[in-house]
Prior knowledge:
The protein is mainly alpha-helical.
Amino acid sequence: MTEDHYLRWLKRKADSHVRRDRKRYPDLNITRAGYKEAIHEAVLRSDGKDAYTGEDLNWSLISTYDNDKSREGRHQYKAGFAMLPTVDHVAPAIALSSFEICAWKTNDAKNDLAYSDFRALCEKVIKHTYADK
Length: 133
């Protein structure tokens, strides 16, 4: 991945979160520069790994998703992007610039859950899976 490729991804992710959060929190001073910095810091902290699972992320997937191919291939196409790095807004109500980097599959599973709720859900799944064994 080139630096230009990364910077383009970083800008798009910051823009997306800024647009969303300005709608959600209109009274707060949300800046593109602040979000870019916070997301970049999350990338550095991640050391290339999913913040929640510790799995290696596949940075070569950024900016390669094709909506037309997705419509054709549906689930199989999307499954190929499971380890695509995504930006999780951890606790927007507490700190607008609290981000973690995780795989798309993890972010999909976590959705809008707080970390503690996500962890509790994962524990329930594990407990249920092994309940009768």
